[in-house]
Amino acid sequence: MADFIQYSQDGPVVTLTMNEPERRNPLTGNSAVPDFLSAIDRIHTDRSVRAVILTGAGTAFSSGGDIRDMQRQSSGEVPGMQIRHEYRTGIQRLPLALFNLEVPVIAAINGPAIGAGLDLACMCDIRIAAETAKFAESFVKLGIIPGDGGAWLLPRLIGLARASELSYTGEVIGAEQAAAWGLVSRVVPADRLLDTAREIAQRIAANPPHAVRLTKRLLREAMHTRLDTLLEMAAAFQALSHQTEDHREAVAAFLEKRAPVFKG
């Protein structure tokens, strides 16, 4: 079987493509989780990477959990404690890995993002959607709950009331409504989706990489920490940043009225 994740790199930008279009890129019942973790580890160790794009092959971004795998879990043949272990060592490793990845991740949502597929998009830093994209936090429709962190992620992106509406009804919303609710930052024609994602990624990659990485860490920590704690962390990060060659280059370029050349 081919790898679930296709990994490609163009300069400082890596594109990860979920590549099981015949099953609409599910995140369970296949090698999705270990393939994601392997790709994330590869990005961690490659300091040349400055931005990541995540998208899906075919007409869907991701259909979320595999129904056949759910059938196995609901059969009564698998003990509840074994299912708990599978979640903790399986799909629940994804939000932690993406949360701790220092490089910004752009979700280029090319089609339906359903259940865990929506939660995967929420794990990314920036979400842009094709006009054909659809979104659903549809776990209740199957008599289950968001087991992959969606109940933590979604309210932080769109607020508790709207997250509750999506989670309790399981209903599908379109790309324009997702943009109006702040779930995605922009909606573009399907044939412009990847080009738009690459343009954003290149604009990110043009900045000093240490500043981008540390800014992402601050934004992530701000999701759950106190203001005084965050300010203390920001002071430490800023002290480090002031001592970098890229900061000195940025200051010199500003004073000399020229474009900076950042080396990372």
TrEMBL record:
Signal peptide: none annotated. Belongs to the enoyl-CoA hydratase/isomerase family. Its EC number is 4.2.1.17. Pfam families: ECH_1 (PF00378). One of its GO terms (molecular function) is enoyl-CoA hydratase activity. It comes from the Bacteria. GO terms for biological process: fatty acid beta-oxidation. This is Enoyl-CoA hydratase. Keywords: Lyase. InterPro entries: ClpP/crotonase-like_dom_sf, Enoyl-CoA_hydra/iso, Enoyl-CoA_hydra_C.
